[in-house]
Inverse folding.
């Protein structure tokens, strides 16, 4: 074979590899860019942003300053628990929605996206009979406390994951009607009513987020985000009052995920309570085996498992447990147990103690970063991802049974490790949205003091503090382009594909346009 | 030995000297000479130099590229995590995406992140798992999902993708819900068939 033939064959053999490798190297993308890559900080790519044209009327703070508020007034609240009235509202809403023809429901989706001046106000009023539901929501929002009293941590076994969240889901759908109501009120120029509706919406968001599951918190964040979009529309409306202090009164953070993350991290112990007392409980070997096999089966089937486990599946699981038993023994001895102690324990108990240690190691390694409120989100995210990588390197999260740290992959299957920073990002995204809205209001205040002009930089605004980005700790990117200003509210600097918001701001001439008369 | 018959008395002295010389025996090996001649005839005659520079250059570059690719293939750095952004269909959003008239609504970007192939094997309960969903498939939940399935669905596709199972259906219209007064009248009307105790009204 001649040399040239050998060379030609080599090229043909290597070129696909090189192509694949080249594709893998496409980047930088993702939360861990290759070393040396510097993403421009504070500048979002235009293609990633949703853009809004805003024409803002200059507006000073109202008199008195706290005339408008998105939280129920201290003296307006009434004693009692809000939950009963939320359930009444959800019940009435469910019935109302079921009676609504599908065609009308689809119209609602359109009405939510339609420009305000094109809303068919009369048709909306005639179609929806939302008033009774709204009154129940209003009563709930003004109650002093909201205690759902679910106590999910007291659930045992599969009860924790079979707990229905249909009512929470209905609350999310209900919030859309609140948004529609607010839109109608803004379109008609009834700004006070719109603010009241949004106040109830924000209360609904916060109260839904008081439920333990992470999903409830995410629904709360979604509802709050819907309300923020309506606040933006209100700010953009002609003659709208300045809402800087109304927004400032909202709690910070508006939705706190820490409690729900604690609940999620405790889920394995709620589902498998035998792990908690594995070191001290006295059980027969058969009892231990039953508990361990059942736990492994539940994990294998994502929580759905019938009472009867088939023979073949059972023996497969037993074989896997026995295969991991020597490593579990070794780890217990390394943790301080004597050989005699470990040898005397039933196999199931050894596996259970080992799993508890592993689960705690995994849980603590990730969740500790969640509780550092002072840490900025990007740093928190990097620390958490590094913790995940370290766990992976230590075989804590590998699916390979021969090297995995877990004999029963409880932590790997049940802990929402990969979702944690995504959930936290949702929270930070909401904070960024709120901060962006307050920045708009600060600009409107500036325009009152300095004539109907835009500031050249956000630093020029001295009338009120300008909010800072939760990502960078600095004001949002802002630049003036002719008679317009562009304010970027990027959602993330490490997830390049995530949507952000870009406001193209124009200050209306001195005389505000007349409010629309609906 | 010169043949003396041919040496006449009239030849010069040089001729006489030369006549006394005897020829040397041939040193050529005829067989070898024939062999060399035959071999020489078999060798290609060197052609005049053509333009082979381009071919040589191409082969050289190819060889260099081959070696380089081989080295890079063996020694390329393996990043710890690589995410690929794949644009897929975004679930229908219920968040109002209001755009002021006159400005074109920005096309919503549709993103989902995907692990590199080794990490994608991990069956994690999170977005780090490879999501092998077809781009246009509408996400579906089981009919009665447990919390873990619901959590995964919501965290993968968003809260807005979670629609109630009867969202596309409507209940057959029934009578409007009774007010308190109507309900009371109905109950009282039912009890009017029974005799009232003599003590007075039962309610």
């Amino acid at each position: 074979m001649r040399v040239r033939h050998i060379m030609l064959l080599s090229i043909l053999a290597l070129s696909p590899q090189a192509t694949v490798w080249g594709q893998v190297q496409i980047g930088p993308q993702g939360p861990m860019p290759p070393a040396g890559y510097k993403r421009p900080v504070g500048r979002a790519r235009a293609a990633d942003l949703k853009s809004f044209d805003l024409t803002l009327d200059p507006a000073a703070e109202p008199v008195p300053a706290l005339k408008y508020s998105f939280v129920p007034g201290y003296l307006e609240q009434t004693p009692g628990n809000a939950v009963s009235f939320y359930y009444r509202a959800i019940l009435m809403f469910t019935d109302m929605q079921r009676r609504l023809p599908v065609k009308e429901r689809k119209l609602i989706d359109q009405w939510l996206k339609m420009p305000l001046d094109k809303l068919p106000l009369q048709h909306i009023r005639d179609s929806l009979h939302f008033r009774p539901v709204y009154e129940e929501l209003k009563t709930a929002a003004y109650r002093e406390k909201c205690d759902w009293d679910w106590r999910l941590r007291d659930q045992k076994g599969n009860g924790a994951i079979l707990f229905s969240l249909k009512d929470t889901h209905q609350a999310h759908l209900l919030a859309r009607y609140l948004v529609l109501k607010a839109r109608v009120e803004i379109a008609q120029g009834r700004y006070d009513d719109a603010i009241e509706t949004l106040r109830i919406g924000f209360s609904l968001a916060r109260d839904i987020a008081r439920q333990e599951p992470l999903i409830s918190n995410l629904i709360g964040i979604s509802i709050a985000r819907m309300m923020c979009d309506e606040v933006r529309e209100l700010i953009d409306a002609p003659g709208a009052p300045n809402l800087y202090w109304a927004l400032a009164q909202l709690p910070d953070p508006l939705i706190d995920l820490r409690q729900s993350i604690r609940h999620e991290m405790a889920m394995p112990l709620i589902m498998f309570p035998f792990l908690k007392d594995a070191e001290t409980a006295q059980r027969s070997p058969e009892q231990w085996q039953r508990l361990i096999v059942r736990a492994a089966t539940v994990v294998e089937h994502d929580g759905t498992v019938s009472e009867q486990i088939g023979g073949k599946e059972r023996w497969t699981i037993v074989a896997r447990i026995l295969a991991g038993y020597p490593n579990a023994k070794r780890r217990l001895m390394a943790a301080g147990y004597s050989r005699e102690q470990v040898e005397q324990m039933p196999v199931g108990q050894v596996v259970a103690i080992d799993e508890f240690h592993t689960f705690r190691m995994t849980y603590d390694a990730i969740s500790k970063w969640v509780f550092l409120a002072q840490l900025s989100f990007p740093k928190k995210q990097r620390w958490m991802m590094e913790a995940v990588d370290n766990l992976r390197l230590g075989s804590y999260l590998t699916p390979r049974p021969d090297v995995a740290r877990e004999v029963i992959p409880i932590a790997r299957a049940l802990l929402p490790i990969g979702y944690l920073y995504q959930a936290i990002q949702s929270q930070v995204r909401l904070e960024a949205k709120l901060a962006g809205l307050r920045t708009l209001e600060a600009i409107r205040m500036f325009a009152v003091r300095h004539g109907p002009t835009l500031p050249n930089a956000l630093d020029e605004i001295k009338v009120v503090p300008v909010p800072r980005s939760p990502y960078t700790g600095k004001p949002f990117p802002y630049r003036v382009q002719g008679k317009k200003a562009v304010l970027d509210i990027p959602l993330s600097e490490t997830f390049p594909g995530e949507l952000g918001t870009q406001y193209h701001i124009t200050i209306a001439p001195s005389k505000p346009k007349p409010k629309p008369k609906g | 030995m010169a043949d003396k018959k041919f040496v006449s008395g009239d030849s010069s002295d040089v001729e006489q000297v030369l006549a006394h010389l005897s020829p040397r025996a041939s040193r050529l090996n005829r067989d070898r000479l024939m062999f060399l001649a035959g071999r020489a005839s078999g060798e290609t005659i060197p052609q005049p130099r053509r333009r082979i520079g381009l071919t040589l250059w191409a082969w050289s570059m190819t060889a260099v590229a081959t070696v380089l690719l081989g080295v890079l293939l063996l020694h390329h750095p393996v990043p710890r995590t690589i995410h690929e952004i794949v644009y897929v269909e975004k679930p229908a959003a219920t968040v109002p995406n209001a755009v002021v008239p006159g400005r074109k609504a920005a096309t919503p970007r549709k993103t989902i992140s995907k692990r590199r192939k080794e990490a994608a094997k991990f069956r994690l309960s999170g977005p780090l798992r490879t999501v092998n969903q077809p781009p246009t498939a509408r996400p579906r939940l089981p009919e009665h999902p447990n919390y873990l399935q619901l959590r995964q669905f919501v965290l993968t596709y968003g809260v807005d993708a979670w629609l109630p199972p009867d969202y596309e259906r409507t209940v057959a219209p029934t009578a409007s819900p009774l007010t308190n007064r109507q309900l009371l009248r109905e109950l009282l009307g039912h009890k009017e068939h029974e005799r009232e105790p003599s003590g007075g009204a039962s309610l």
In short: Strands of chain B lie at 84-86, 112-114. The CA atoms of residues 66 and 72 of chain B lie 10 Å apart.
